[in-house]
Structure formats: C-alpha cells, structure tokens
Amino acid sequence: MRLKNKPWALPLIQENPQYVVTEPQKFRGQWQERFAARQPLMIEVGMGKGRFILEMARQNPDKNFIGLEVQTTATGIALKKQLAANLPNLQFICGDGNEITEMFAPGEVAGIYLNFSDPWPKKRHAKRRLTYRTFLAQYQQIIASDGLLEFKTDNQGLFEYSLASLNNYGMVFDQVWLDLHHSKEAADNVMTEYEEKFSQKGQPIYKLAARFESKN
Ligand SMILES: C[S@@+](CC[C@H](N)C(=O)[O-])C[C@H]1O[C@@H](n2cnc3c(N)ncnc32)[C@H](O)[C@@H]1O
C-alpha cells in the first residue's frame, strides 16, 4: 500500500547514512561490517514503518537485522524510530526486494521475514507477490543452507497461494498456523503495524515457517 509522500523523509534518509543504505549493492558480502557485532543477519522484505523489525532487534541483541523497504516515506518513518532507539543491531535499506541478489552475497542472510506483503489479488499481477517463484529463487540464493523463511498475513487468498508456491518450489514447512494469535506461538509473536490493525478487526492471522531443501 502506498503511503502519502512526506517531503521530510528523503532528506532525513540522506542525513543518516549510518542507519539507511540507499546503494545496497556496495555492501554485498560485507553487511556485518555495518554492525557493532558479527552475528546472524535477519532481514525483513517490505518492513513498512518498521515496528516489527525494531522490536525484533530490541528483543534479540544476539542477531543483526536489516529492514528493506521500497517506499521512501515508510523508510523515513522507521528511521525516526531508530533515531530514538539507536539499536546497534539494526540497519535499513531503502530499495526494491526484486534486486535482493544484488544486495546480498550467497548465504549472507540467516533468515527472511515477509509480513503482510501486498496481496496483488489479480492473477496477471501474481509475479509481483513476494512469494512468487522468482522471489523464492532469489531468497534461496542469499539465505544460509538452514535459514528460515517466515511469512505472516491476514489475507487468506495470498496465504493459500503462498503455501502452493513454496510447496511447488520444493520448500519444506517447519510449521503452519491458521490462527496465530490463538496458538501457543502467540506469546512470542512480535506484531507488525498491519497485524495489529487486522487482528483488531477480528481477522485470523496466518503464518508459515519454511526452509529451502538442502542442496546436499
Ligand atoms: C502491506 S505493507 C506491510 C508493512 C509491514 N510489513 C507490516 O506488516 O505492517 C507492505 C510493504 O511492503 C513494501 N514492499 C512491497 N513490495 C516491495 C519490494 N519489492 N521491495 C521492498 N518493499 C516492498 C511496501 O512498500 C509496503 O510498505
């Protein structure tokens, strides 16, 4: 979903290169150098305003996190939160997830989060869904061999599509939740902005956790 353009967002991003990278290909294979400690790198593709990735970074100081977002305004809003929190294990990329293999080297990423990705309900737009096979192929290139892909959504159609897409790609499911907030997993769940909005309306939240089958 497109946010209304905030004219302050781009200048704020440009003033804070310590937190936001706008030319991510320059750091391919070297992301660990941007963090205080070398530790597993987790990324969220389409972080929106950053609530999830900020909270994950706060709760998991033994991991590094990168929030990737294509919209300047959303990245700017996330950056404002990070400027207040100053988490040493959090960085942002303002860029397109469709170029992820140019941003990260093979195996550089330990885990990938997709949260409430745009559903693109029209069949002719299926290629834009972040769980379409061309995106899966890119995730497979950058994720470590035991790395986990986690996906949450309120959208039943997108969830059904994604289950089939990941299965057809040959991925192995660790677990699937059809009502995350009423499951045992709920206690450890970190909510996103969209998740709070949709769950308040009483909609069930779907989640899957899956891995690429080992190449050995
Ligand atoms: C529906 S919002 C969800 C935001 C957040 N993950 C949440 O759950 O609150 C989807 C976000 O993904 C971003 N997005 C969509 N396609 C993207 C892409 N190819 N690369 C990076 N971000 C993308 C959109 O700009 C939008 O901010």
From TrEMBL:
CDD domains: AdoMet_MTases (cd02440). S-adenosyl-L-methionine binds at residues 44, 69, 96, 118. Transmembrane segments: none annotated. It comes from the Bacteria. It holds the Pfam family Methyltransf_4. One of its GO terms (cellular component) is tRNA methyltransferase complex. It catalyses: guanosine(46) in tRNA + S-adenosyl-L-methionine = N(7)-methylguanosine(46) in tRNA + S-adenosyl-L-homocysteine. Keywords: Methyltransferase, S-adenosyl-L-methionine, Transferase, tRNA processing. PROSITE patterns: SAM_MT_TRMB. Pathway: tRNA modification; N(7)-methylguanine-tRNA biosynthesis. GO terms for molecular function: tRNA (guanine(46)-N7)-methyltransferase activity. Substrate binds at residues 122, 154, 192-195. Its EC number is 2.1.1.33. Belongs to the class I-like SAM-binding methyltransferase superfamily. TrmB family. Catalyzes the formation of N(7)-methylguanine at position 46 (m7G46) in tRNA. This is tRNA (guanine-N(7)-)-methyltransferase. It comes from Ligilactobacillus salitolerans.
